[in-house]
């Protein structure tokens, strides 16, 4: 498959006499993704824009001596892919920490593997005692032991280096005794609001596992700013990686302000080869900080600030997604009525959401559990009461445990679900245990959303899942779990629906559908 990469897909189909093309594509499998133009067999490109589409005979009139003509043969041509949600600077930074991903992404299968990897990293890099050792991507649902590594496990790797390993969801982490000591966290430390310090039941001492905001109690984590000297290289490599998957618009959702400033400096040095849309993490902004955020509608050197991002709950694979009804199987030691919890209170979220809608600032809101989706729906409904604000395109990021009744509200309020459709493969088997068959089968109900004619997108949430868009489409179309179980066959998308969700659908989410997402 070829991808019309880097093209500003602008609608300009009428051919005028003085136009000429730099590149002409000719083929029988040109998928425009625009239902209004279906019988396209040739496409002309000049500079960064598609200038004409039509039949080969017609389009070849735009050929000059220097025009490159590409015969597609059996290859398909599709619009450049648009990343509806992910974290580009995190992808860049994580190349600097230990990769603890299980197959098929990485190699880690047991807690022993983790301890050995940490130990060998300390040795190979000759890290001095006291140096933080960071890792990312272990997955308790896939480890042989089916549990998180705890402080005792990690103490085997080192008693002298503080170690912090972040879970594959990004919503939990596990630390060793040196990290707890360095951060003054012990049995007397209270859980922070929106987080849990997991404990050894008889002593109350932390067992090493930190949920959600409890990860913020440590001076370092996988996302702490990296040295300026490394930043540019890592970011350009990360963008190159996205582009290798056919992605031409990349999201950096929930970035911190110092990194956003650095991204601007780097772009000014040399424009990015793909478009990067950045949304600052806004849970901790006060009203003045929030007011100072100005969303930009056009790119400067390949970068624009697209709006803001909030988070309301955790992750289903970490069993911290906030539900309205109890989990079928919660984390160890939790009561049978465990539903997890919001990480941001409605009293703080609602006025901020109202302010953003009023100002027309595009907003992404992380909400996985139906409890968190209720919070978002309630917040937006309250803000829109007695007001006429249309076409705000507020995005429900992940929206995984969306209920049927919530889909109706979603449509009514003009919200856009961006489903984390990679999940059925990566964590589908685990979700059946966590949520029971009925809720698991309706996870990320993309096909129902399409039937209700609600605009939606799908995403990988890189670096949680690598930004491989073909695999994302494969999961969305097949919904096969690791054990080959089809999770919610009714919610499988057609290949065209999946392609739409990562091209024209995603362009719509970004208010860029006039320029991108289709070959027109
Ligand atoms: Zn998220
Ligand atoms: Zn995310």
TrEMBL record:
GO terms for molecular function: hydrolase activity, acting on carbon-nitrogen (but not peptide) bonds. InterPro entries: Amidohydro_3 (IPR013108), Metal-dep_hydrolase_composite (IPR011059), Metal_Hydrolase (IPR032466), YtcJ-like (IPR033932). It holds the Pfam family Amidohydro_3. This is Amidohydrolase 3 domain-containing protein. It comes from marine metagenome. Residues 68-519 form the Amidohydrolase domain.
């Amino acid at each position: 498959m070829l991808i019309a990469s880097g093209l500003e897909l602008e609608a300009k189909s009428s051919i005028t006499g003085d136009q000429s093309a730099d590149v002409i594509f000719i083929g029988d499998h040109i998928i425009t993704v625009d239902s209004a133009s279906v019988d396209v067999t040739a496409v002309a490109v000049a500079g960064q824009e598609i200038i004409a589409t039509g039949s080969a005979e017609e389009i070849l009139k735009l050929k000059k001596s220097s025009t490159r003509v590409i015969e597609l043969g059996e290859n398909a041509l599709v619009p450049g892919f648009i990343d509806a949600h992910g974290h580009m600077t995190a992808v860049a930074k994580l190349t600097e920490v230990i990769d603890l991903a299980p197959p098929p992404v990485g190699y880690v299968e047991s807690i022993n593997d983790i301890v050995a990897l940490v130990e060998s990293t300390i040795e190979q890099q000759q890290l001095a005692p006291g140096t933080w050792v960071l890792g990312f991507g272990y997955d308790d649902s896939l480890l042989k032991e089916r549990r998180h590594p705890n402080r005792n496990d990690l103490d085997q790797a080192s008693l002298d280096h503080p170690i912090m390993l972040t879970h594959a969801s990004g919503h939990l982490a596990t630390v060793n005794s040196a990290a707890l000591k360095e951060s003054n966290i012990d049995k007397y430390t209270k859980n922070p609001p929106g987080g849990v310090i997991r404990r050894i039941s008889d002593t109350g001492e932390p067992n090493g596992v930190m949920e959600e905001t409890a990860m913020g109690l440590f001076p370092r984590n996988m996302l702490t700013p990296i040295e300026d000297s490394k930043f540019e290289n890592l970011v350009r490599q990360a963008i190159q990686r996205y582009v290798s998957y056919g992605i031409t618009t990349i999201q950096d959702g929930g970035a911190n302000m110092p990194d956003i400033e650095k991204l601007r400096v780097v772009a000014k040095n040399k424009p990015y080869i793909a478009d990067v849309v950045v949304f600052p993490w806004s849970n901790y902004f006060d009203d003045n900080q929030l007011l100072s955020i100005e969303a930009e509608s056009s790119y400067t050197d390949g970068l624009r600030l697209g709006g803001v991002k909030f988070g309301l709950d955790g992750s289903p694979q970490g069993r911290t997604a906030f539900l309205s009804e109890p989990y079928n199987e919660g984390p160890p030691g939790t009561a049978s009525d465990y539903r997890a919890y919001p990480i941001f209170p409605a009293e703080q979220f609602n006025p901020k959401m109202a302010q953003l809608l009023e100002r027309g600032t595009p907003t992404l809101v992380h909400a996985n559990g139906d409890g968190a989706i209720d919070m978002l729906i309630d917040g937006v409904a309250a803000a829109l009461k007695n007001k006429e604000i249309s076409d705000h395109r507020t995005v429900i990021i992940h929206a995984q445990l969306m209920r049927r009744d919530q889909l109706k509200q979603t449509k009514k309020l003009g919200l856009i679900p961006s489903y984390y459709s990679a999940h059925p493969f990566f964590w589908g088997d685990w979700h059946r245990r966590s949520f029971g068959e009925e809720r698991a089968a309706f996870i990320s109900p993309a096909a129902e959303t399409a039937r209700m004619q609600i605009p939606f997108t799908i995403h990988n949430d890189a670096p949680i899942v690598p930004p491989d868009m073909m695999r994302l489409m494969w999961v969305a179309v097949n919904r096969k779990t690791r054990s080959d179980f089809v999770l919610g066959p009714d919610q499988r998308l057609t290949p065209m629906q999946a392609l739409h969700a990562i091209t024209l659908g995603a362009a719509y989410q970004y208010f860029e559908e006039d320029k991108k997402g289709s070959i027109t």
